Amino acid sequence: MIDFRYHLVSIVAVFLALAVGIIVGASAIQPEVVSGLKAESQLQKKTNERLQAANSVLTRQLNVDDLFGQTNSGSLLDHILQGEQVVVVTAPGYDGRTVTGVTSALRQAGATVTGQVNLTVQFFDISENTESSLTALAQRLVPAGISLSGSAAAGQIAGQQAAAQVIAAAIVHQDGQAVVTSTQIQRILYGFGAEGFLQVSGPGGGPALAGQATLAVVVIPAVAPANASSPANLALVAFAHDLQLGSAGAVLAGSLPGSGTGSAIDAVTSGAAGIAITTVDNANTSVGQIMVVQELRNMLNPHAMPAAYGVIPNAVPSPPPTAAPTPSPSPSASRSAHKHRVPS
Question: I need a surface site. Which of 69, 75, 295, 328 has the fewest CB within 10 A?
Answer without folding.
Answer: 75
